[in-house]
Design goal:
There is one protein chain. This protein is mostly beta strands. The chain is about 0% helix and about 55% strand. It has no helices and 11 strands. It starts with a strand and ends with a strand.
């Protein structure tokens, strides 16, 4: 499974961005997908997750502001980010999980600053 994330950029506080992650390869048995982020000097942290069946969960810090979704073929995973805050600044990574193996895409930088 190969993942390619995109959509990051510079945005002012209160603004919005939409991240996308395009998957290729054997995604037939993907169990779940998710977004993580890594801020400077901090460990990578969970942001949002989506199961094959469509269940979602979010980090408390992004609940009500971020929405994770996917297309019907599971080839594209998205993260709609609204009401962005400076604390959301980080490199964002997508991942797919299949039979216990975790696949990561290269990150996309999100910077929230005025």
């Amino acid at each position: 499974v190969q993942l390619q994330a995109s959509g990051g950029g510079l945005v002012q506080p209160g603004g919005s961005l939409r991240l996308s992650c395009v998957a290729s390869g054997d995604i037939v048995k993907i169990n779940s997908m998710g977004w993580y982020r890594e801020a400077p000097g901090k460990e990578r942290e969970f942001v949002a997750g989506l199961t094959r069946g469509g269940s979602t969960n979010y980090a408390d810090s992004v609940k009500g502001r971020f929405t994770i979704s996917r297309d019907s073929t599971m080839t594209t995973l998205s993260l709609q980010m609204n009401s962005l805050k400076p604390d959301d600044t980080a490199v964002y990574y997508c991942n797919y999980v299949r039979a216990g193996a975790i696949y990561w895409g290269k990150g996309t930088q999100v910077t929230v600053s005025s």
